[in-house]
Design brief:
- This protein has 6 helices and no strands.
- With about 180 residues, the chain is mainly α.
- The protein has one domain.
- Helix 1 packs antiparallel against helix 6.
- It is elongated and about 50 Å long.
- The N and C termini lie close together (about 10 Å).
- The N terminus is likely disordered.
Length: about 180
């Protein structure tokens, strides 16, 4: 999971605290607080640097970069909140580049399943989504550019708690690492 010689227990505990607090606040308040993401990022960078010096710093910063970079475009398109982006960055600072890529994959897969379930349970949203998707695909073929069309206010949009999906995807990856599947 990481390249340093320091015990994984400290990082595992901080990851679990990050994911628990983020999930609870995302469900309750529809936001992920900056204090948990920023403090985790700072702690992880300092921890990795303290254990491995410049190699640990690089490990943590690469993970932070891929975590932020992977979700930032979706934030700019209005598909994710800033807290989701910072949460993935904090996870990246703990897990490094490779671990973050794996956690991202699991989070995206679970997010897709979660989204499909929400759409299937809400027929009106499903119809609206399909109509918007058709328009977006037509625009892509006509203009050569993808243009995201957000749901209208009348759609009664049900917002996903994507922080919860990120948490489950990350926990899934970490568990697979610890049972030896990675």
């Amino acid at each position: 999971m990481r390249t340093t010689d320091c015990p994984d227990t400290t990082l595992l505990i901080s990851l679990l605290i990050l994911l628990t607090v983020s999930s609870i606040t995302d469900i309750r308040e529809r936001r992920i607080p900056n204090w948990i993401t920023y403090s985790t990022i700072l702690f992880s960078i300092l921890y990795h640097t303290g254990c491995q010096g410049m190699e640990g710093l690089s490990f943590s910063l690469k993970g932070l970069g891929i975590g932020l970079g992977a979700f930032l475009p979706f934030y700019f398109l209005g598909m994710l909140g800033a807290g989701d982006v910072k949460l993935m960055g904090a996870i990246g600072a703990i897990l490094g580049f490779k671990g973050t890529l794996n956690a991202l994959c699991y989070s995206v897969i679970l997010g897709g399943i979660y989204g499909v379930i929400i759409l299937l349970l809400n027929r009106a949203q499903l119809k609206s989504f399909i109509d918007r998707l058709k328009i977006m695909i037509r625009m892509l073929f006509v203009t050569g550019r993808f243009v995201y069309i957000p749901p209208s206010c009348e759609d009664g949009e049900i917002r996903m708690c994507y922080g919860l999906t990120i948490a489950f995807g990350t926990i899934n990856y970490v568990l697979l690492v610890y049972i030896g599947w990675y």
